[in-house]
Amino acid sequence: MLCQPVCRFGRKLVRRRPLGPREGAESRLARCLSTLDLVALGVGSTLGAGVYVLAGEVAKDKAGPAIIICFLVAALSSVLSGLCYAEFGARVPGSGSAYLYSYVTVGQLCAFITGWNLILSYVIGAASVARAWSSAFDDLIGNQVSLLLKGGFSLQVPHVLATHLDFFALGLVLLLTGLLVLGASESALVTKVFTGVNLLVLSFVILSGFMKGDLHHWQLTEQDYRLAMSASNDTSSLGPLGSGGFMPFGFEGILHGAATCFYAFIGFDCIATTGEEARNPQRSIPLSIIISLFICFLAYFGVSAALTLMMPYYQIHPGSPLPQAFLHVGWAPARYTVAAGTLCALSSSLLGTMFPMPRVIYAMADDGLLFRGLARIHPRTHTPIMATMVSGIFAAFMAFLFELSDLVDLMSIGTLLAYSLVVFSVLVLRYQPDENFGKNEKTEVEIAEIKPAPQAGSSESVPEAGPPQALASLCNPVNTTPTLKSGRIVYACALLLALLLTILGLLLAQWPRPVLFGDPAYTTGAVLLLLLITGLTFVIWRQPQNPAPLHFKVPALPVLPLLSIFVNVYLMMQMTPGTWARFGIWMLIGFSIYFGYGIRHSLEKESGQQPPASSFPAVDKNIPSAELA
């Protein structure tokens, strides 16, 4: 008696949304964004103020001149997730990004968790960037604003509220919220302007570094360090030398630096939320994701190379590395150019963070998982007006009141979790049959049932499938196209691999030295995990893939998606217990909304049949045929 209600409840949690548009449903958003608009949005969101600060922090204390290798490793790691987003952008041209991709693959509950964490990431990201913009502008005018506000509007709640009310950040977020309400094309135009100025400033920095730089700064020795100490009255400003040379902190320093640099590439996923506003989403979304990541890599690589060429890495000022570098080479006025670039980078980053936030909320509300009023579209501007206003006011309130430094890691957890689910979804979907393959499999079953059974007394016998035969069928499947059975095998193996990679990531993040340098128990456990992971990966590799044509497909399946999952999990496992506790509180709030409202108002009504997991539309009905030509 209890089993049936539990099964019905479980089926509700794994309801999947159909990949194609619902019957009678057409996009209510305006298709007005070109590939250039999407590239500007991705670069603007990703290439924020970190390019002016992060290189200094990593070069001084973690990697030295080898920071360029750190950015190369981080870029390659980010590309693993970026390729999976690109394939899904070609498969599913809709709003919602990772939320939508999870919904069509792993079901409703995972989709809600993904969307709920994306909302958290975008809100904290927007509020923190607004605060950073306010602080950068305040520095330019001699900290006059902060001194005034601390005197009249100071707050005395440490680690919760900010030291003072930030009216400037509040007004900036509300102003950009109004811009987003006006329309997607207007927002894209402003983003292109800020991103263009930012790239011009970065080009100036890179060229200046190569002109005024000295290759000797990549070959420093202990003698150079001693000369710098004797010439400096304040030796505390000099960082550790390491072993000198190009890699002063060794291979371990490169790994630590790459883990930090990985977060510099977070932000490109905002492109995936434009599926209902891009003119040709199945082509422009994959293309713009790849181009955006490449441009961002070139910028980070060039700025870090220029910085370490202009001055010794141990003399870099972490807070303002580029202005200090220009002072070092005698180009003091150039710091004003850097300041202008910083403000433009922060502006484009803020717009890039605020743009996808209402799109995710709109997609969840349109599916019934959040309150339906949030799915309202303005009839003239064709923007999700309620979702934009609510998310903008929430982000402005956070920037106005709260100390965000303790919440930034929450943003990373939400983003990395979304990346992992998208990668998992791509891995699973590539091996699933579409409707035609399902029909073929049914025909094979029916033919098998029609085959006459051996008569009584006949010497013919049917061998039973034992473990060797079952293992052989896993490694050498008969079918050359996916079947329901092969799809289930991949799904089960992918779930096991996600669990094993999580355990391996936890071991390497929390106990790296015992695992890598000698503790027999830890090392043996890690080796066994690697053997299991290798075996399951081989089983997935042997299964047939769906040959449906797409504008873009992730290469080297299943290896690249699994590497991406491992990188994301490894970074998540390095978060502090306090961060995970805050994450748990946010999830409790989300679950109360989902189980109190979303599960009962979802548009995906419970039925006996699930939509096929790979019935992708060949083209979007809302795209004019001339644009697809």
Secondary-structure blueprint of this entry?
Blueprint: H1 3-13, H2 35-46, H3 50-63, H4 67-91, H5 98-103, H6 108-140, H7 144-152, H8 167-182, H9 184-212, H10 222-231, H11 250-262, H12 281-310, H13 321-328, H14 334-354, H15 356-366, H16 385-401, H17 408-429, H18 435-450, H19 467-475, H20 484-510, H21 512-516, H22 520-542, H23 559-572, H24 577-601, H25 625-628
Helix pairs in contact: 2-9, 2-12, 2-14, 3-11, 3-12, 4-11, 4-12, 4-17, 4-23, 6-8, 6-14, 6-15, 6-16, 6-17, 6-24, 8-16, 9-12, 9-14, 13-14, 15-16, 17-20, 17-23, 20-22, 20-23
Descriptive terms for the model:
629 residues, mainly alpha, Amino acid/polyamine transporter I, 25 helices, 65% helix, 0% strand, globular, Cationic amino acid transporter C-terminal domain-containing protein
Describe the structure.
This protein has 629 residues and is mainly α. The chain has a domain at 33-429: Amino acid/polyamine transporter I (Up-down Bundle). Helices cover 65% and strands 0% of the residues. The protein is built from 25 helices and no strands. The protein has helices spanning 3-13, 35-46, 50-63, 67-91, 98-103, 108-140, 144-152, 167-182, 184-212, 222-231, 250-262, 281-310, 321-328, 334-354, 356-366, 385-401, 408-429, 435-450, 467-475, 484-510, 512-516, 520-542, 559-572, 577-601, 625-628. The protein is globular and about 75 Å long. 46% of the residues are buried. The model is unreliable at 435-465 and 606-629 (pLDDT under 50).
